[in-house]
Amino acid sequence: MPTRVEYSAGPQGPRAARLRSSQGGVLPGLACLAAATLAMLHQESIRSSEAWAMAWVFDRMLGGSAYSVRDVIFHNIGGGQPFGLMVTGLCSSAVLIAPILALSGVLFLMGRIAVPRLARAAALALLIVIVSNGLRFFMIAGAQQAWGEQGFSLMHHFLGSFVVITGFVAAIIVLVRAGKTDRGRRAA
Predict the structure, then answer these.
(1) Between the CA atoms of 57, 62, 68 and 72, what dihedral angle is there, to the nearest 10 degrees?
(2) What is the largest CA-CA distance in the chain?
(3) What does each C-alpha distance from 1 to 5, 6, 7, 70 come to in angstroms?
(4) pTM value?
(5) Given a cut of 70, is residue 153 above it in pLDDT?
């Protein structure tokens, strides 16, 4: 009676990592890497959009009126001392978005995390960095209206930076956690 032996091409055992080509992470991975590159190349447009969005928020939530011109937010107009905030290249969400998109792209291309799960994590990570940077702008403008240049310095250099760094770290954690399940196993 002949015995039949089947050989597996991949690793065996409970801890073996199996790459699944059917997960389809190549297209989203390349799209994320391209979007990261575009975010850095079109930073000026992102800064102008951020300035417009924050002027809209300031106009509704802070004293005086607010508007933007390109990447500059003018706020507290008609409410006392008017102020201007420039959204610079290093203060823009573009420098936060690009690495999140790049990391997401690499994770998609690795193919070890289910695409829908990673897509949700990437969207949440992007939302976290955008909201944390918007909160930083709001904190800076509010402190600037309340305490002038001292308020600007305090929020811009210390507390606002802390908020953005915390948001960035939280976004990275969200992406890394996408590869884990509730019981500590790797996600399918």
Answers:
(1) -110
(2) 97
(3) 13, 16, 19, 82
(4) 0.81
(5) yes
